[in-house]
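To: structure desk
From: M.T.
Subject: fold request, one chain
Message: Could you run this one when you get a chance? Sequence is below, nothing fancy, just the single chain.
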Amino acid sequence: MLVAEREDRKLEKERVVNECFPPLTLSGLSAQELMDLCKELNSKIDVVDEGRYDVEVKVVKNQTEITTLIEKISGLKGTKRPNLKRVKKTTEDMLGACSDTSKLMKADFKVNLKTVKKEEEKKDEVNDWRKNVEAMSGMEGRKKKFSTTQ
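Reply: Done. Structure tokens follow.
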């Protein structure tokens, strides 16, 4: 059915185009007549382009006007708040919410938490720096070579 509709539209379009714009007969025309025909077609094209341009400008103007109006409307409305559902509570529920059980629950929550021990910083022992000069300098091998050559 869709294929048939497409073909019907195509045939209808061809029929309308042929009615509005009959095929050009260029055979048997002189050079001057062809030039006049071209000028006439160019003038028709210019008229159509001007109309198309005018319509485009109107469309763009209307779109900008629509967007500004939508922004104004949304600004006037503000944010819509959802309707809240009513919750029926009995007096026992209200008293239970205000009682000390909530405090006990908080205390139980704190009991279930893991305890974390802070690690004490290890203090390096202060040694005499003169004892380890060779080890700290990183030049043990060069120092030995120097001492053996003398």
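Reply (cont.): The chain has a mean pLDDT of 77. Let me know if you need anything else for the meeting.
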